[in-house]
Design a protein that fits this description.
The protein is an alpha+beta fold. The protein folds into 3 domains: about 270 residues, no CATH class; about 100 residues, no CATH class; about 60 residues, Arc Repressor Mutant, subunit A. About 40% of the residues lie in helices and about 20% in strands. It has 15 helices and 17 strands. About 35% of the residues are buried. The protein binds zinc ion (ZN) and manganese (II) ion. The site of manganese (II) ion has 3 residues, from loops. Manganese (II) ion (MN) binds next to loops. InterPro entries: Asn/Gln-tRNA_amidoTrfase_suB/E, Asn/Gln-tRNA_Trfase_suB/E_cat, Asn/Gln_amidotransferase, Asn/Gln_tRNA_amidoTrase-B-like, GatB, GatB_Yqey_C_2, Gln-tRNA_amidoTrfase_suB_CS, Gln_synth/guanido_kin_cat_dom. One of its GO terms (biological process) is translation.
Length: about 450
Amino acid sequence: MSDFKIIIGLEIHAQLNTKSKMFCCCDNDSQGKKPNTVVCPICLGMPGTLPMPNKEAILKTLKLGKALSCEIPNYSKFDRKHYYYPDLPKGYQISQYDMPLCIGGNVSLELNGVMKSVKLNRIHLEEDAGKLIHLSKNTIVDLNRAGTPLVEIVTEPVISSPAEAKEFMRSLQKILRQLNVSNADMEKGHLRCDANISVIRSDQSSKIIEIKNLNSFKFVYRALEFEINRLTSDFEGNIGPGKQTRGFDSKRSQTYPQRLKEEASDYRYFPEPDIPTIDTTLLKIEEVDSELPSTFVLRVHEEYNLSKEVAKKLTHNLELMSCFIVLEGKLNHDSLKRSANWLANEKILRINPDLLVTLNRSIEKSEINSSQAKSILRSAVDEEDIVQQIKKFRSNDGRDIDGVRKIIDKVVESNKKEKEKYLAGKKQILGFFIGQVLGELKGNGNPEEISQMLKSKLDGK
Ligand code: ZN
Ligand code: MN
């Protein structure tokens, strides 16, 4: 199996937790309500009704897009995606085709201590369909869910293992909840995942398999694992272009074939004539959820003992806040606190959680000190750059260990009184010496190492 390259892309649907549905005034929360009672002519798809786009849903989508560093085009539109199904009485779903609200972006995740940033293709907004309930003799339909706003988050095909796919889902769930755009409860169907997978050996690729409707982290993992085994054990039988759609039987932990996959042309996409183009420059994202920043400030103040000023600064900029949210759980308490202070107070060239994690790991290993980290932060453009700069600091330290020793000798010689105090038992004066040496080194030294060298010098060892 090791000579196969695995290529996974995910499409995630997340229900937005807005007050009303996507195109009508119906309550968006039908939890526990009788079937077909939270409906109106618009979401029932009656002919002649007109959809009214939900501003809160559009703002929440843009908020998510900003937090995931997507590009927000100035204009966006809705399109009709045609297909027939009993849970879709209109015969088409209002979705977005070629002008989505958000383009690109990324979600970072950590797997076995390694950070990875998963590139997104797009995020668009659409309406959900109703639900079919299969009874023993017949099937009935509940349209309470019809018209619920959904964001569809599409990744590039850059995920390389089932474990990575699972971590991606976890990471995304956390961000959706922290930003308060979705409750993202997989058991309740707020967050659903379709996974595309193919395997490649030498120049040959298997068909692309789309596994539909995976509704738990465990199922995402198990379905992909099953599919990798199936595709690699009969690679010859699965070579070729084309797509196949499969479902997942969680009881047997197996996938099974479903209908043939439609091509985009089968949906006959065309612009929704009843909704004008959206000018995103006229929308103020800050309008939505004014209560979120204050709960965020209180939470990080209490959990991490950060000053309220620092916490407030983070909430003023969505990019800073989402970076902090991604860092939670990846960094230990001290490093997280340090990062929050950096984010709030330093001029950082590129705000990216991966870069901050790399820097903090390096401080934790005493490879660099925090003032060196800060100077890297101000100039680093990418991970490679950071690694190079860390190397440079380290080689400066290592190369000139004799130079450091000379400076220590000089500092100790020119501060005789302090040396006497130290020898008389006032050990805290060591900090004064370390400061003097670091000053001479212009912040380049490793405090830990200098402290050791100073001790042996002062103690005459
Ligand atoms: Zn309605
Ligand atoms: Mn969709």
